[in-house]
Amino acid sequence: MDEALKNEPQRLDLDNQPKSEGPYKDMGELRRPDDEACGFDILENFERFNQANDIYTRGQWDPRIRSEKVLNWFRGMFTPGLGAKKSDGYTVKDFALRNAGWMSTNIIIQRTRKDDRADGFLDSIEEFAPPYKDKYKVESPQEMADEIKHVCKIFGADAAGITAYDPRWHYTNSFSAKMMVEKEYGIPDDLPNVIVVLTEMSYEAVRSYPSATAGVAVGNGYSHDCNMTLTIASYIQNLGYRAVATVNDTSQGIPYAIQAGLGEYARSGLLIHQEFGPRTRIGRIHTDLPLTHDKPINFGVRDFCEVCNRCSDNCPPGAIPEGPPQEEIISQSNIVGIRKWTVEAEKCFKFWVNQGTECGVCMRICPYNKGRDTALARTYYNLWKKLANSPFRKLALWLDIKLGYGMRLKPKEWWARRRL
């Protein structure tokens, strides 16, 4: 065999599975001082995750997941009319709305496809220009942290926090969708600070899950995150510092958001923010700009989830667990070595594929998913959160159900609620 071919990476399949680097304790600091405050229960057998094991990448290379239906699910994000039906919420108009939401994301992905990249989803977002040669002098990391959060909000972040680089949440390898192989991971490990930004997803659109109509909340959220993280990174580079914009690509966003004080982990596997609940998209900017860090917060989500099973009871494919957090490995799309609530990714994704778009029933049904468009709604939510974070949390759950929160808004009714 030609020596060059011998050294070429082999296409992934059942006989050539993604590699594992083994237990993390042999490579770095297994636990950190703020793990308890974050709710992270790291076990001795913890391993970093390989991107090729993600359920979406497995949908491309793993014959147990991959099918023509799955590939059409991916194609449907940018192919007009693909997957459309006559049923309410799944018409050509609904899919047109969803796909329009994804447009900026698709543009960012397509601009580097020739280089075997999928920016924002398999790879970090390629920088527009290198850092300015002269660094702006930072007198106070605390003042700069306050300023960078101000800049984040100017560029559209609904919330922002800052934390330290944590290699535990970074993938061991990246994935090439072009070659169907693992490829070298691409983010430098000498960028000490991580700016985490959140985009709030539309409450009204999320109320219409499951439907393609609701998909505009996700697509538009990702498009906004891609543009926003790249813009914030560009600002930092103009100050003379390095910055790498990431969205759903090179690391796990939820642990970073928790460390940055932006929320808590829920039974549904989602981040719960104090204001937006589960309706968030998460972006990160890795940088060497000197910044102070935020601390994790606790407003009672874990304790409330212990008594609430609304997401697990209402999950269409039954993919969300009941009972306490577990360390059980359900599939190779799980993270090894963390005791937590884990969604069965294969069941979840199969349901998504069968309906032709994503499902967000867990997001819609979550008691922390509340509208905030009126003073009365904001007041109720603030009072409800205090009740949920008290010994009367079961009363908070009962009240939520009694008042009809989490009920589905029919997509045709969403379309009828046109607002100028």
Helix-strand sequence: HHHHHHHEEEEHHEHEEEHHHHHHH
Shape: globular
Outline the biggest β-sheet.
Answer: 4 strands, antiparallel
Got a strand count?
8
The poorly predicted ranges are none
- The secondary-structure class comes to alpha+beta
Our measurement of the CA-to-CA distance between the termini, rounded to an integer number of angstroms, reads 66 Å
Count the helices. How many?
17
Strand order of the largest sheet: 1-4-8-5
**How many domain regions?**
1
Average pLDDT, all residues: 95
- Amount of beta strand: 5-15%
How much helix, percentage-wise, in residues? 25-40%
For the CA atoms, what is the radius of gyration? 21 Å
Question: What topology emerges from the helices and strands here?
Answer:
Layout: H1 3-6, H2 35-38, H3 55-61, H4 68-75, H5 92-101, H6 103-110, H7 141-154, E1 159-164, E2 174-176, E3 181-183, E4 193-200, H8 203-206, H9 215-238, E5 243-246, H10 253-259, E6 264-265, E7 271-272, E8 280-287, H11 301-307, H12 310-314, H13 345-355, H14 361-365, H15 375-388, H16 393-402, H17 411-416
Antiparallel strand pairs: 1-4, 2-3, 4-8, 5-8, 6-7
Describe the protein in words:
By secondary structure, the chain is an alpha+beta fold. The protein starts with a helix and ends with a helix. The strands form 3 sheets. The protein has a 4-stranded antiparallel β-sheet with strand order 1-4-8-5, with helices on both faces. Strands 2-3 form a two-stranded antiparallel ribbon. Strands 6-7 form a two-stranded antiparallel ribbon. The chain has helices at 3-6, 35-38, 55-61, 68-75, 92-101, 103-110, 141-154, 203-206, 215-238, 253-259, 301-307, 310-314, 345-355, 361-365, 375-388, 393-402, 411-416; strands at residues 159-164, 174-176, 181-183, 193-200, 243-246, 264-265, 271-272, 280-287. The protein has one domain. The model has no long low-confidence stretch (mean pLDDT 95). The longest helix is centred in the middle third of the chain and has 24 residues, at 215-238. The chain contains 17 helices and 8 strands.
